[in-house]
Amino acid sequence: MGDKVPAAPCWFCLSNVDVEKHLVVSVGDLCYAAMPKGPLVEDHVMVLTIGHIQSLVAASDEIRNEVEKFKNAFTLAADKVGARVFLKAGWYPLVRELTHAKVGDK
């Protein structure tokens, strides 16, 4: 997977003793979903890889498939309550690939 250990402690590493576990929504085999400390919008959720990767483009098929499962699950949950999901993938230096999902009103 090409895991690289960041130079400084990573806010998002589940193995970090300071990780805010109360923000974790769900943990998969290779990825997990968490609420951000400072959400951009109400119901902001991040899907993050457990291992450090440069971007989703550099991710293995297994990681991309698991990210898709998370995205599909959030989309289905939003559909059930008549909400919409906005998905955005972005790369943040020294952090990892983050996929943002916003579940909000119609």
Automatic annotation (TrEMBL):
Task: Choose one Gene Ontology CC annotation of this protein and give it.
Answer: post-mRNA release spliceosomal complex
Where does the Cwf19-like C-terminal domain lie? 7-84
Q: Which domain of life is it from?
A: Eukaryota
* GO molecular-function term, one example from the UniProt record: RNA lariat debranching enzyme activator activity
A Pfam family for this UniProt protein? CwfJ_C_1
Q: Which Gene3D superfamilies match?
A: HIT-like (3.30.428.10)
GO BP annotations, alphabetical order: mRNA splicing, via spliceosome
Q: Where is the signal peptide?
A: none
- Protein name per the record: Cwf19-like C-terminal domain-containing protein
Species = Teladorsagia circumcincta
